[in-house]
Amino acid sequence: MHVFVSGGTGLIGSAVVAELLAGGHTVLALARSEASARAAEEAGAEPLRGGLTDLDTLRAGAARTDGVVHLAFGNDFSSDEALARCVAEESAAVAALGEQLVGSDRPLVVVSGTPALPGRLATEDDPPMTDGPVGGRGRTVLAALDLASRGVRSSAVRLPRTVHDQGDGGFAGMLTRFARGSGVSGYPGDGTQRWPAVHARDAAVLFRLALEQAPAGTSWHAVADEGDAVRDIAAVIGRRLGLPVESLPTESFGALGPVFAADQPASSARTRAGLGWTPTHPALLADLERLRP
C-alpha cells in the first residue's frame, strides 16, 4: 500500500514509518517543517509539507494514497486551554481525513489511548474516555470508528501512557524531564497507581497490522506492560539521574496532573489473539535503565 502518515517523524511516527517501509509499503509523510521533511526523506518516505491544521493538505494526502495512519497531535500540555486547542485541532484533522475516505473501503488507523478504569485492567471492549482533560480525543476516535458504516475501514490503536525507546517517551519521559528540571524524581499521590507501557517499535508493528488486517470499527491495545506502579518508574528515574524520589502534589504536574494520578492498567490479550501481535522489545523499567545522568 501507499500510506499517508501524519506525525511520521516523532518517536512513535518514525518507528511506524520504518515498520511500514520494512513491510513493503511506501509512505507519504506529513511534514510541518523543512527539518521534518528532511527527516522523512532520510527515512525513505516522501514528504508532504503541511501541518495538522492544514485540512486541504490532509485531504490531498488521503486522496493520493491507499490508506491513512493518523498519529499527529499538538502536544502542548502547558495549560488547560492549550491542551483543549490541541484536542480541537486533532478532531478537525481526523474528520477531514475520514471524509476523504468515505465510500472507498480504504483503511484509516487512528491513534487513541487505553481507557482508565481504576482497579481493573482495561480491555479492547471498554469504550474510550470521553470526559476529563483529554476526553475530546475519545470522542474524536468514536467518530472515526463510526465511519465504518460509511465505507471506511477505520480502526483505532490505543496506546498506553508510556510509549518508550531508549528510556524516553510518554508519561515516563515527562517524569524524566520534570525530574531533570526540578531536581526531584516526583510522582503524584502514593505512587501505587499503575501505568501501562509499550516499546515504540512494538507499537509500530501493531499499527502496521491494523492497517493491513483490522476489521472496520475495531479497537486494539498496544500494551506490552499491563501496569507499572508510578513510584517504581520514578524510583528508576531517580536512581539513574542521582536524584531524590518523592511524592508531590498532583497540581505539580500541570494540566495532566489528574491523568498522572489515575490508576489505569490495561490488557492486550484480545489484540495478541486477534492480530497475532507479540511484543519483543525491552519493557519500560528495563528501558529506563538506559537513561543517562
Automatic annotation (TrEMBL):
Native source organism of the sequence: Promicromonospora thailandica
Name used for this protein in its record: Nucleoside-diphosphate-sugar epimerase
Superkingdom field: Bacteria
Domain NAD-dependent epimerase/dehydratase: 3-216
InterPro entries: Epimerase_deHydtase, NAD(P)-bd_dom_sf, NAD(P)-dependent_oxidoreduct
UniProt cross-references to PANTHER family, sorted A to Z: NAD(P)-BINDING DOMAIN-CONTAINING PROTEIN-RELATED, PROTEIN YEEZ
Gene Ontology MF: a single term: aldehyde dehydrogenase (NAD+) activity
GO CC annotation terms, alphabetical: cytoplasm
